[in-house]
Write a structure and sequence with these properties.
The chain is α+β, with helices and mostly antiparallel strands and about 400 residues long. It has five helices and 19 strands. The chain binds zinc ion. The site of zinc ion has 6 residues, from strand 14.
């Protein structure tokens, strides 16, 4: 399945000439002039690395400044956390960002199908119960800031919205959706990962559903598109081109339509699109092609019903709770029709429970929406997630809040 990891992010990706430096090999950056003070557009003040320092980040949230040159930093993330490692700075300040680690973390690369090589860049993963060490190698042309943040994987319990509003409860954390490095993870990243941030419970729910779908059907991987920006904003707000009218706060995520083709199911239109009034793009009726509708219905059903051990049928709803509650699923009417056609087959096999069968079969949860001809957009209930302190920065080019240049949800 490694072939499905398309490497487009950095010049170093896929190269075979680069070798990891030895354990103590912290290269001396050329030049010893003190770099200029950090711009306000990067995370808050942190330690500046010196040539020859033994560089480590962790176990808490931490950041360090790295000047021009090559740097090797050992990361020691705490156990059982959603971990994100990021590099912020000027877009052309970073030449290389490599992760060198034991299995399965050796697969961590800043790789997504459609990357634009802009900073900040991030990789995210779920740390195991036993301690791990992850080494990152950074070649910088100008000063960059390396950030390590983590949140507990257990911090997923729902909050009462009124408690959050009254300041009596903190919102759940915003975390990078972990990269799918584990066997049978069932998904790939399509959007730049700086747009791949979700609330903790949403990350857990998606990962469980992707994994069970992969185990059940043994078919291709499903691409995950835009969620929220690293700082909780709308994807593209950092470039003053927000790509959606929602997607802030980590509770919206775009997922590709499953297909039966080779390679991953990408965010690709599975129908003939037509522009209707006010330039709204929809599927022309009767033109859906190449959609694996049963698998789509199964995946959505898992999110609604909650996971069960080994995909077993568990009629008693109190014995399976979804990790996150689905509020609305937006997609084209043509795909809604296909999902509904697939429901009786799933029911006959006991691969769906009453709750999802009912919710997907009637109007309300599934909502037809223009501009959803190539994906399903899943919105989860609850409060907007709380970004980590160290990730609350905006690039200097951004206008706070971001303008919306898209009518897409
Ligand atoms: Zn969306």
């Amino acid at each position: 399945m490694r072939a499905e990891w398309l490497c487009v992010a950095l010049a170093a990706c896929g190269g075979t000439t680069w070798k990891p430096p030895p354990a103590e090999g912290i290269a001396s950056p050329p030049g010893s002039e003190a770099p200029p003070p950090p711009a306000a557009s990067v995370p808050p003040a942190s330690k500046r690395a010196q040539s020859g320092d033994r560089l480590e980040l962790g176990p808490g949230n931490a950041a360090m400044l790295l000047g021009d040159g090559r740097w090797v930093v050992e990361l020691r993330p705490p156990a059982r956390r959603f971990v994100t490692v990021g590099v912020a700075g000027k877009d052309d300040g970073l030449v290389r960002f490599e992760v060198v680690a034991q299995r399965p973390f050796h697969r961590l690369r800043n790789e997504t199908f459609s990357d634009d090589r802009r900073l900040p860049i991030f990789v995210s993963f779920e740390s195991p119960a036993e301690p791990i060490s992850v080494r990152v190698v950074i070649d910088a042309k100008s000063e960059v800031r390396l950030v390590l943040v983590s949140e507990s994987v257990d911090d997923i319990a729902p909050r009462l919205l009124r408690d959050v509003k009254a300041g009596k409860a903190e919102p759940r954390p915003l975390v990078g959706l972990p990269f799918p490095i584990e066997p049978r993870a069932g998904y790939v990243m399509e959007a730049p990962h700086r747009y791949g941030f979700v609330r903790t419970d949403v990350a857990t729910a998606l990962r469980a559903a992707f994994r069970q779908t992969r185990i059940r059907y043994k078919r291709n991987l499903l691409a995950v598109g835009d969620a929220s920006q690293w700082n909780g904003g709308r994807p593209g707000a950092d470039l003053d081109k927000a790509r959606h009218i929602s997607h802030d706060g980590g509770r919206d995520v775009d997922v590709a339509l499953p297909s039966r083709e080779d390679g991953a199911s990408r965010i690709v239109r599975r129908c003939e699109g037509v522009l209707v009034e006010n330039q709204r793009l929809q599927c022309a009726p009767g033109t859906v092609k190449g959609l694996d509708a049963e698998r789509l219905a199964y995946f959505l059903g898992l999110l609604i019903d909650g996971p069960t051990p080994n995909g077993r049928h568990v009629p008693d709803a109190s014995k399976r709770r979804p990790f996150a509650d689905v509020e609305t699923i937006f997609t084209d009417q043509a795909y809604i029709d296909e999902i509904r056609k697939a429901l009786p087959g799933l029911k006959a096999k006991n691969w769906i429970h009453e709750e999802a069968f009912g919710a997907l079969g009637e109007d309300g949860l599934l909502r037809p929406s223009p501009w959803h001809t190539d994906h399903v957009h899943i919105r989860f209930r609850g409060e907007n997630a709380r970004p980590a302190e160290l990730l609350r920065f905006e690039p200097s080019r951004s206008i706070p809040g971001g303008r919306t240049s898209s009518s897409k949800r």
